[in-house]
Amino acid sequence: MDDCAEVIAMLNGTWFGAELSPETQQRLARLGDIQDFDADEVILREGDETKELGILVSGRLALRTLVPERGPVTILSVEPGDIFGWSAVLSDAQAQSTVVATEASRALVIEGPKLRAALKEDHALAASLYPRVLKAVARRLRATRLQLLDLFAR
Known about the structure:
Layout: H1 3-12, H2 15-18, H3 22-31, E1 33-37, E2 42-44, E3 52-58, E4 61-67, E5 71-78, E6 83-84, E7 98-101, E8 105-111, H4 112-121, H5 123-153
Helix pairs in contact: 1-3, 4-5
């Protein structure tokens, strides 16, 4: 199996990539690189420039934010199929949380400038990808809202 086919197979195993057209999957596979992360590895720090978009294909990540007088607090777990570093689709965006691998994990990672250029030139890619990114952000907002309700209930 060549690298592109392997990445497409990984994407097909996720909610994010399974319904994308074969052309879009192939374009993403060519744009990104598979990266492995060790447990406890910090992938992105809150406040840093978000340079890459990642689609988690296996493992689990924690999104943590710094809470005064409490330190870092996990606000959400990222499961396979979810994305991290989504603000890389925007120029000069900063990470809103720290991303830490809570177990050995693997992701398709796409450099922000490369992704933004591809989205600008390939309208079919943009039309396929933006709704998925928005769906991922909406899922994250809903999960975070539930987490906050639980936090305030105590």
